[in-house]
Design brief:
The structure is a homotetramer of 304-residue chains. Chain A has 304 residues and is an alpha+beta fold. The first copy, chain A, has one domain (3-297): Beta-lactamase (3-Layer(aba) Sandwich), CATH 3.40.710.10. Helices cover 45% and strands 10% of the residues of chain A. Chain A has 13 helices and seven strands. In chain A, strands 2-1-7-6-5 form a five-stranded antiparallel beta sheet. In chain A, strands 3-4 form a two-stranded antiparallel sheet. Chains in contact: A-B, A-C, B-D, C-D. Chains A and B meet through helix 3, helix 11 and helix 12 of A and helix 3, helix 11 and helix 12 of B.
Chain lengths: 304, 304, 304, 304
């Protein structure tokens, strides 16, 4: 079977299974989404794509944006960035604050919330206007010149993000935040409020399947070794408490968001984005995980 | 450059750098090894190999054997094995016992000591004579009919392995060990006492680069999906506290042992074994890590 | 020897020993105090006192005020207060955030920072103007009608109290803070900024040696059982990580503050306040601890 | 009311309340006890006693014996003993193993299992025959020349004490056990198997209410400061996870055992022993705790 047939088959099978997931509730605005949405889009390195279902409906990409902010900060600071954040899986949620204390405010990796907040602090320090310049960067990477933040989503998070306020101030007290916590958090919540559809999302991530180069014009976003390392990080740390499970069952670098989106990267080959809003107990899209597991099990589209 | 030239170049460069590692001291018998030993051997899927340095000197493979015991237990129990042990990275040593308690005696993965002990318990339950039948299995996989346990190493560990005695009894008290702790530990220490040289070790692991099949005769050791999953586990959990770092810098599934050996697997392509006894602070071979990092950075031999 | 002679003797001996303590640095304003200050004052239940050294110099009582805020909240809520905060020692600083998560936002006791913040939240909920009404309460208990908060100290803490901002927002995210974190913290920092001298401090705490009654007029501040229970809490939880050490070496209920003050209570008998600004590694006054240890070892003024 | 009337009244009231406790199950032999047993005995410093209910029925004192082994080890080593074990409350069961690792094998206090095992190690090191000499010591303190260990109880624990085997080997691996773990544990299980009735138990502990001296002949068991310090330790650490609760509600130094016994000490005044086998969720006698809380609330027999 070619990849279109496999996607269609697995999409239809996954559509049928009973959805045991639940809507994310900690950001009230996210609860307004239609829970039956389900879309998939794959893009290869020639820019050819194949989509199915609600693949053209926009959704909040949330934590998936952390890969883009990491890319920009890594591009700016180079390897020095790893003095501010580590590259290790975080174990479980039980230890996150404990580990921050033991490791003197150095987050375990850039994809846990504490790590993404430190990355935001780096961008605030290095850019004149982090919010605008980050948006310009994502517009360029995604070829979406009109992309904007969602104020509704950002405001909803700002009003309820006590846990992130706690994290940022805790790291500040341990010496690993340079700027005012309020400013850093403001940018963090904006960054997480970006919206894309599956087609746009899979297209945006093609630079990570293409050695750091944009597939449209071959221009360099990051170096090839940097691109490999971001893929390695997505594989080991991209799925909260379920990172091992994803590597184990899906076998691809990827990143999920509480909006129900997942993007996965098969180096030298393709990217794929899935969206279904209801989440499993670990905060990853229930149907998204099922789809990707079936998709890679019935194909050779994995790295192992 | 072809792979032989790259290996030779990186080997010679790595040989020159000052070795900051230290000998493993917690198993007295291991301290008797010559600290200057340094060998590398690569094997491709046709069985062709290339070795350099002390690649034909035998050493204690220690924790590397955990991949082989997992393979046998997985072959016997199938997916039910994951009810006894999880597939998540363990975070850090700081939390291992805490996490065992929180997760009711289910170890985080089969490569931390607690997980490997549970795998030994599974083999003791399912095999008439675990010690003998496991040895037969490894002899078959490695095409080494005369392979034996090292009583010297095993006895040295048995006399000083208080931490492992503690782990096994702790898991027993939490209900996830079926047999007598003394019997399980006895097998565990034997299992870790196997000795191979770099050539044998890289050859033994070729089934994981070959979809679960022996390269010599194509016979099935495990299924293709099982093979992919063991590779995923090695990538996320194979290097103690440094698993993320290895995936990040080397970009290959692999497993290290305190004897100073490391084996890495490039699916569909090759395996490579490195040995140098002095260890970095995380318990992985200092020069072995340096060699593999350089080797994959200067080549396309990675999965990312 | 009578108590005056013992106090004089131990004071003079303790004055001579080399002070290994360090000034508290996390609140910049506290660093401006004269580090050689050393005062002691004892008050018996007739209101008779005996002081020595710098016993009439005012200092920032800091965490000692947590006993007074607990007293007021306990008076208001009665035993229902223990649904919001527990009565157990906290073990060590290593676990404080971990334990908050495991126990769903219920702090281990009212004297760790998290517990004192929850007590402030209770007072903000129950009082029209917590800041004013708490000050009125302390003025009444201490017979000091002109007592005020120190804006300098409070402002200095507000500008650097990231750790407490983290704690309050973390508990809010776990559901155990009712009010806006900013408002609760504002009151918390004011509360900790009260200033007294040793004479005033020992006098203020006499109600806890007197079964909850003011010694000046016999009026009831809290009930006798409540008074006993606050004493028990000071004994088990009053000295951060050193609570066991204080009970062990001094044998009295007591409370310390990072301003270098300590107050101790001998039920049915007396109270004693000590002040010396330099702190030991656990954050308790170096000379204060030494004085009290010697004082109770050479007398029968303990509860054991 | 005099103390006899109070004991009688509180005993009868407590007898009536529904017992929500459960039998200890982790030592099978303990499960054979009659769950309706309920006895109380008080002894004053003249040796006069008053008992009620099943106060003359023998039971397994279990962890209460840890006070006696500590007394003997303290007598032998003096203050040097605190280099091997600390004097701090342990927080909660969740952190016990974590804290052992963080504090390099130094248990938090001598009453958690890890601490009591280290005390046993000390006695094995200092005595020719720890088992016999400890028994002689307890016979002398208790004036019970025929006291013996219960082999049935000890054997039952030895066959199921995996958690304690784990603890002892873990501490050995951290360097704070001098002898062979098997020998230390053997003594530990014997030590916990002592049996007494309430009358004997309260009599045995009178030396701690009497400044370290036997009340029968005034001979010195330990010094007065040592006696005060053991009382302080019982107050802060005597009741597992409920130590704070006991200090808070009862207000006396005391020690409980999983056999359902509790002994409490009112310095300069009396001792009291209670026994009822069913345990609350924290492992302390359900009715024993209720009785002591009521007894001290309705009397002035507390230290606060």
């Amino acid at each position: 079977m070619n990849y279109k047939d496999i996607i269609e088959k697995v999409y239809n099978e996954t559509k049928e299974i009973s959805n045991e997931g639940k809507i994310a509730t900690y950001i009230p605005e996210l609860a307004n989404v239609d829970p039956t949405m389900f879309g998939v889009h794959m893009t290869n390195l020639k820019g050819e794509g194949f989509g199915i279902g609600d693949n053209l409906v926009k959704f909040s990409i949330q934590s998936i944006a952390k890969v883009l902010s990491l890319t920009l900060a890594y591009k700016i600071m180079g390897e020095k960035i790893w003095k501010r954040v580590d590259v290790e899986p975080s174990g479980t949620k039980f230890d996150s604050l404990l580990l921050l204390e033991i490791f003197n405010g150095i987050p375990r990796n850039p994809f846990v919330n504490s790590g993404a907040i430190v990355i935001c602090d780096i961008l605030v320090s290095h850019l004149g206007n982090a919010k605008e310049e980050f948006l310009d960067f994502v517009r360029d990477v995604s070829n979406l010149p009109n992309l904007t933040y969602s104020d509704k989503i950002a405001d909803s998070e700002k009003a309820h993000g006590y846990r992130n306020v706690a994290l940022c101030n805790f790291i500040k007290s341990l010496g690993n935040i340079e700027n005012d916590p309020t400013e850093v958090l403001d940018f963090y919540f904006d960054m997480c409020s970006l919206e894309m559809n599956c087609q746009q999302l899979s297209y945006t991530f093609t630079y990570l399947a293409n050695g750091g180069l944009k597939i449209s014009d071959g221009s360099k976003i990051i170096t090839k070794p940097q691109s490999k390392r971001i893929n390695a990080l997505m594989l080991t740390c991209g799925f909260y408490d379920e990172s091992g499970e994803f590597a184990f069952k899906v076998g691809l670098p990827g990143k999920s968001g509480v909006g129900g989106g997942i993007v996965a990267v098969c180096p030298h080959s393709y990217t794929i984005a899935v969206w279904s809003p209801l989440l499993n107990p670990n905060g990853n899209s229930f149907k998204g995980m099922k789809f990707l597991e079936e998709f890679t099990t019935h194909s050779d589209f994995t790295i192992f």
